[in-house]
Amino acid sequence: MGFFDKIKNSLKKTRNAIAATLGGVFASFRGVSDEFYEELEESMILADIGVETSCKAVEMLRQRVKERKLKEAEEVHACLKEILVEMLDVGDTRLKMRTRPSIVLVIGVNGVGKTTTIGKLAHSFANQGRRVLLCAADTFRAAAADQLEIWAGRADVQIVRQHEGADPAAVVYDAIQAAKARGTDLILCDTAGRLHNKANLMNELGKIARIIDRELPDADKEVLLVLDGTTGQNGLMQAKEFKQIAGVTGIALTKLDGTAKGGIVIAVADALQIPVKYIGVGEQMDDLMPFEAKAFVDALI
């Protein structure tokens, strides 16, 4: 199954929700008017695209419809899709991995699917022939390292871990030394997700970042924030906090197959100006997919 088909299938709940609102706006289209734009904006907000992003998209649509003298529903619909694709196009959707090793710090609150995302990334890159090393730097959550070790086994990749309660930065240091010695291509680093204790989390991530900068000064580095797609606008609030704390470079949105709130993908990319790099569309190992904006919008509306 290709990206488009898989996305279309996984976004069924969101598409049904949008069809009930956005679809109705275009189905009853009687020409462009203030009433049409108001209904469109309302339906986009209901699809969890977010108030600010929806208002911005509708304002851009007004301008383009006027400039291009669009009159037909199909033309206006196509123009809206074009705008949403542009809103998603806020940076490179691929992970930077030109150096050996490259490192990806994976962050996010507990329960969003962070460890699962790391496991699926490891599986994907190992299948591409890359040497992957997992780093179990979430030393606070009970059994976090055990869970990551299970994923390492499934993906057939190596892991560096220590005992529960160990210093996370020390685990990262060990992983970097192991990666250098073993000719590893990519280090995927799990981290604690205690956003409720922001000062501790900032200190911890800052310490990890300093270790990485000192030990791998020229390496490609990414900070991938994992968000649970089912949380909708709450996920956007989390993302804003993590952006301040950790200098996020990309986003992975999980559990999109189980939600009617898939519009959050557009809200997050637009509000944060950070590219969505992966979306989780199911339980299987290959159900974490590299993000493609046009295919996503086509599947969505």
Describe this structure in words.
- With 301 residues, the chain is an alpha/beta fold.
- Helix content is 53%, strand content 13%.
- It has 12 helices and 8 strands.
- The chain has an 8-stranded mixed β-sheet with strand order 3-2-4-1-5-6-7-8, sandwiched between helices.
- A hairpin with a 7-residue loop joins strand 7 and strand 8 (288-290).
- It is elongated, with a radius of gyration of 21 Å.
- The chain starts with a helix and ends with a helix.
List keywords for this structure.
301 residues, 8 strands, eight-stranded mixed β-sheet, alpha/beta, elongated
Put the structure in a nutshell.
The protein is of the alpha/beta class.
Walk me through the topology.
Elements lengths: L2 H8 L1 H16 L6 H13 L4 H18 L4 H16 L13 E6 L6 H14 L4 E5 L7 H12 L2 E3 L7 H15 L3 E5 L7 H18 L5 E8 L4 H14 L3 E5 L9 H9 L3 E5 L7 E3 L2 H8 L1
Parallel strand pairs: 1-4, 1-5, 2-3, 2-4, 5-6, 6-7
Antiparallel strand pairs: 7-8
Query: Structural class of the secondary elements?
Result: alpha/beta
Helix content: 40-55%
Looking across the biggest beta sheet, what order are the strands in?
Answer: 3-2-4-1-5-6-7-8
Compute the number of helices.
Answer: 12
Overall outline: elongated
Number of strands: 8
